[in-house]
TrEMBL record:
Superkingdom classification of source: Eukaryota
Lineage of origin: Eukaryota, Metazoa, Chordata, Craniata, Vertebrata
Protein's UniProt name: Protein phosphatase 6, regulatory subunit 3
Comp. bias regions, Acidic residues: 614-624
Source organism per UniProt: Poecilia mexicana
Family label: Belongs to the SAPS family.
Residue numbers spanned by region Disordered: 598-677
GO cellular component: cytosol; nucleus
A GO term for molecular function: protein phosphatase binding
Secretion signal span: none
């Protein structure tokens, strides 16, 4: 065996730690040091808890390695030190969290000049984060005593690891009261205002990005926390500060009152988009707030919109004059200027503002003709699908959105608009219908000349379908139909021909081409049955359905319609064919399931012992009884033959070997099987019809599958038979259990009783037949 050779490897650390002059680096050079530490090896943990070792571990992760060290092992010890300190060993956490000298050494890493070493910063952030999670009160108290903590965090916000540490303080501190205290402390330290100041053109892109991401995460985390904690009456102080009008105005002034910087502009727009985010309900098919739900996370703060509205003209100007971009060469041509990240994010901001459906914002967008500029960009940059999808979202939102409520009147009542001003602006000022038809014709012309299909054609098809759908079923259907009817006659006829011709053909072609792919990608929703197949009308009806709840999935019937009663009847009938009752007779075909009947034949019909023994020569007992005169006395000297089935039975088997027998007169006779006689037949012609017995020494095994609806009793086969000649030579002192099977047949004045008694211990079977007619009593006893 392998253990015989002691192949089990043991850690060398235990042996190494027994040395008095062992050093920390020697221990850290062992390959299994981390494994042993996480397994809480007592010797190793005690060694690491030494004051000098803990100090060295902190030093490794806070100080730059020597420059002359080889690069591939330069950060070996800092990495192992970080893993040891964050192995989540309670003794190490306690020592590091309660020793203020070690915390000060760790905190000193933030006092280095920027930029910080990103790898060491990740080690520092990881160690301090696990301490915040395991020792929140001690670490928070330590950090609150440091007056320059927030300043240092903002100073190094350009390092991603420091940004992660700041977010960790907002998410991993428990209990709730301690977290609220931390939020109040950070708000008093004006962490939001300091992060806002980082987003301006004078800072570098890393600070722009990390400061913007920090503010976005603070918004999301605060809203999620407020939504989850329903009983929290106090608002999140950081979120409240961010949603203030002066905070948003400060953000916008950072990018518009100074030089145009794309990184700063994009970062500010990202923050605004996060502020405009409204929590989507958890159920599909509902775009509005559920009834009774007035949680602040479902709506946009009005102060944010008021701060953005005066700056809409500046955003509009960015669409016209974005930050300077270099000429971009592509595979199909030159872009001068390209769309750029700035204009793309401005379009996204406009889509979010439209979703708010605020009257003042919509009125300003109409006055500036911002939608017209966006449509111009759509048809100009034919290959920019990022722009196309945003324009499609804008048009779909305008067509399906109810009219914006009017501003409150002086008397306090809020007016309601009869129709959407945006839809009128889109159809009249922007001439959306005419531009769709013209763009389609221009694309077909280019394709007919061998050119490519334009990249916006798919989105243009969806925009046209959206107009058709909303004119028929949308909330603004009458207004859309009225605006189309007001078009010049030529434009209206072109539109009607377009929707009945090119658009219908395109929808049919797209439906057939995408049918199989839709079938593969579809989920088991309520429209699964309707979409299964290639029916064009069913697919076309589903094109405009965005969200369908699982309302008809229960209608699908998975049951199998089977006639169980007919199957049961057929099964029972088949069983009756195979398993017959005792009194059934007349079947000449042998079957393993058939139970053989005991038959008797008169002397005249008995076959000779040397003749054929085929079953067809035997007569049925019932046929024999029908031919016999019911008043004829039974001939005791007749040769009766019993047919014995030698089939399988779980109790006993029958053997018809040479059996020594004794007669009533005492003369012993040995019976040997006659040659040519079929096994399974017993010939009793040479014996008197009296009780005969087996020798107890004979190894006879009895087995008979005969089953009768008879009485079963325990009797002594010899005690009630006065005519028996001799008793069985056996041990009569033991009481043996016997089983008897009796069948009685009455035919007129004839009464016949047939019984079979079996002794399992002595292996003796006694067969008795009694016939009664008038006052005649006949007994036939057979022992086999």
């Amino acid at each position: 065996m392998f253990w015989k050779f002691d192949l089990h490897t043991t850690s060398h650390i235990d042996t190494l730690l027994e040395k008095e002059d062992v050093t920390l680096t020697e221990v850290m050079d062992e390959d299994d040091v981390l494994q042993e530490c996480k397994a809480q090896n007592h010797k190793l943990v005690d060694f690491l808890l030494r004051a000098q070792c803990m100090e060295d571990l902190v030093t490794f992760i806070t100080q730059e390695p020597n420059a002359d060290v080889e690069e591939k092992v330069k950060y070996k010890y800092p990495n192992i030190s970080c893993e040891l300190l964050t192995s989540d060993v309670s003794q190490i956490n306690d020592r590091l969290g309660e020793d203020e000298m070690l915390l000060m050494k760790l905190y000193g890493f933030l006092k280095n000049d920027p930029p910080l070493n990103p790898l060491l910063a990740s080690f520092f952030s990881k160690v301090l984060s696990i301490l915040i999670g395991r020792k929140p009160e001690q670490i928070v108290n330590f950090l609150r005593k440091r007056d320059d903590f927030v300043d240092l965090m903002i100073k190094h916000i350009g390092t991603s690891a420091i940004m992660d540490l700041l977010l960790r303080m907002l998410t991993c501190i428990e209990p709730q009261q301690l977290r609220h205290d931390v939020l109040n402390w950070l708000n008093e330290e004006k962490v939001i205002q300091r992060l806002v100041d980082m987003v301006q053109p004078s800072q570098d892109e890393d600070r722009h990005s990390n400061a913007s991401q920090s503010l976005c995460e603070i918004i999301r985390l605060s809203r999620d926390q407020m939504f989850q904690v329903q009983g929290c009456s106090e608002p999140d102080p950081l979120l409240a500060t961010l949603e203030k009008q002066e905070t948003v105005e400060q953000l916008l002034s950072n990018i518009f009152e100074k030089d145009k910087n794309e990184s700063a502009i994009v970062s500010v727009i990202q923050i605004l988009l996060t502020l405009f985010e409204t929590r989507r309900p958890a159920f599909e098919g509902h775009m509005e707030c559920p009834p009774g739900m007035s949680h602040p996370s479902f709506s946009v703060n009005h102060s944010i919109l008021e701060a953005v509205r005066p700056r809409l003209k500046d955003f509009h100007q960015l669409l016209l004059e974005p930050p300077k971009k270099n000429v971009l060469k592509t595979t199909w041509g030159v872009l001068d200027p390209p769309v750029g990240n700035t204009r793309l994010n401005v379009v996204r901001l406009v889509a979010s503002l439209l979703q708010c459906n605020t009257h003042s914002i919509i009125a300003e967008l109409i006055n500036l003709n911002t939608l017209g500029v966006i449509l111009d960009m759509y048809f100009k940059y034919i290959w920019n699908n990022f722009l196309h999808i945003q324009v499609e979202i804008c048009t779909a939102m305008i067509l399906a959105m109810p009219p914006a409520p009017a501003e409150p009147q002086p008397d306090g009542e809020q007016g309601s608009a009869a129709e959407s001003a945006l839809i009128r602006h889109l159809f009249q000022a922007c001439q959306l219908i005419q531009r769709i038809v013209d763009a389609w014709r221009s694309n077909e012309k280019e394709q007919s000349e061998g050119g490519r299909r334009r990249g916006y054609m798919g989105h243009l098809t969806r925009i046209a379908n959206s107009i058709v759908h909303n004119s028929d079923k949308g909330p603004n259907g009458p207004q859309i139909q009225g605006l189309i009817s007001e078009l010049p006659t030529e434009d209206r006829e072109n539109w009607e021909a377009f929707i009945s011709g090119q658009l219908a053909d395109t929808n049919k072609r797209n439906t057939v081409d995408l049918a199989f792919s839709d079938y593969q990608m579809q989920q088991m929703t309520s429209n699964f049955i309707e979409q299964f197949g290639f029916n064009d009308e069913e697919f076309a009806d589903q094109d405009d359905v965005v969200d369908i709840p699982f309302d008809r999935i229960s209608d699908i019937n998975f049951s199998l319609n089977t006639n169980e009663s007919a199957n049961i009847a057929l099964f029972e009938a088949r069983c009756k064919e195979k398993i017959q009752q005792f009194e059934d007779a007349g079947s000449d075909e042998e079957d393993i399931w058939n139970e053989k009947d005991v038959t008797f034949a008169p002397e005249a019909q008995r076959r000779p012992s040397s003749g054929s023994t085929d079953s067809e020569e035997s007569t049925d007992s019932e046929e024999e009884d029908s031919k016999r005169d019911p008043f004829e006395p039974c001939n005791p000297g007749s040769d009766d033959r019993m047919e014995v089935d030698t089939g399988w039975s779980p109790v006993w088997t029958a053997s018809f070997d040479d059996v020594p027998m004794e007669t009533g007169s005492g003369a012993a006779a040995a019976s040997s099987p006659m040659p040519g006689t079929e096994t399974g037949w017993a010939d009793f012609s040479s014996f008197s019809p009296k009780c005969l017995f087996f020798s107890p020494k004979d190894p006879l095994r009895c087995n008979s599958p005969v089953a009768m609806e008879t009485s079963v009793e325990t009797i002594d086969p010899l005690g009630n038979q006065p005519n028996c000649g001799r008793a069985v030579a056996a041990d009569e002192s033991s009481c043996l259990e016997q089983r008897s099977i009796t069948e009685t047949v009455i035919n007129g004045s004839m009464k016949e009783t047939v019984s079979l008694t079996v002794d399992a211990k002595t292996e003796t079977a006694v067969f008795k037949r009694s016939a009664f007619q008038a006052h005649t009593h006949t007994h036939n006893h057979y022992i086999f």
